[in-house]
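Practice problem 4.
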């Protein structure tokens, strides 16, 4: 359980960093996309290991279709 919470926290931190980048540099781009790009860059460079976020990201991908169901 602690591992999942740590992974959620890590993804949330990248989202917050994306929010800060958008606010500071006045970028007209969604902060979530900027945070995802930063996370992807850190994964490529090697600062973040894939094992650190693998469990929560696979969970999110598995349940992603629920977000696209239109409400009645």
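Answer key:
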């Amino acid at each position: 359980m602690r591992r999942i919470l740590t992974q959620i926290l890590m993804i949330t931190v990248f989202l917050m960093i994306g929010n800060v980048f958008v606010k500071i540099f006045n970028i007209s781009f969604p902060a979530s996309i900027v945070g995802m790009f930063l996370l992807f860059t850190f994964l490529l460079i090697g600062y973040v290991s894939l094992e650190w976020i693998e469990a929560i990201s696979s969970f999110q991908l598995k349940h992603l279709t629920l977000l696209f169901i239109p409400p009645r």
